[in-house]
Specification:
163 residues; alpha/beta; Nucleotidyltransferase, domain 5; two-stranded antiparallel sheet; elongated
Length: 163
């Protein structure tokens, strides 16, 4: 006889939740509740993490795998500027392969394009980054620096690794 009568606990656990007046509210079958609070918290943490990571690192400057950068003891953080790479195959400006004879005219066109872009800062218009292997001879590097100077780039930076 004791087992035939259900307690309030048994009724609630089998049938649903209690309302504020003590009546049992039946659960809808097949409905699932979604906890949005925990999802919003997780999303917020992810957004803050990504913002912190990319705001500190700036834009990523990629170095080709076949370029072994020289090491330097005095360095500064390298921002994203126009990139000129000196490889064994030739000269590359923003992934466009060029011959030494075409380098000055291409850099002049790049400089005028950068000057027309009003969203760029003034130092981004004046700066070019040279990525060269540490085994590159001076005879290959000097004409590149002269071409950058003739094209109007007043700040020429070299990509290096920290010692």
């Amino acid at each position: 006889m004791f087992f035939n009568k259900r307690s309030t606990f048994q009724s609630v656990s089998f049938n649903g939740v209690l309302s504020s007046r003590g009546k049992i509210i039946k659960k809808k079958k097949g409905s699932a509740t979604l906890m949005l609070t925990s999802l919003i918290d997780a999303f917020s943490i992810l957004v803050v993490y990504l913002l912190m990571f990319f705001s500190n690192a700036g834009e990523i400057t990629y170095v080709s795998s076949d370029i072994d950068l020289p090491k330097a003891s005095i360095i500064e953080r390298l921002d994203r500027y126009s990139i000129l790479q000196i490889k064994t195959e030739g000269y590359f400006v923003e992934d466009t392969q060029l011959k030494l004879e075409d380098l000055v005219s291409y850099l002049i066109a790049l400089k005028t394009k950068l000057n027309k872009n009003v969203s760029l800062a003034e130092d981004q218009k004046e700066t070019i980054t040279i990525q060269a292997d540490k085994k590159v001879k001076y005879e290959r590097l000097s004409p590149v620096v002269q071409a950058c100077s003739q094209a109007g780039f007043s700040i020429i930076k070299f990509a290096v690794l920290a010692e």
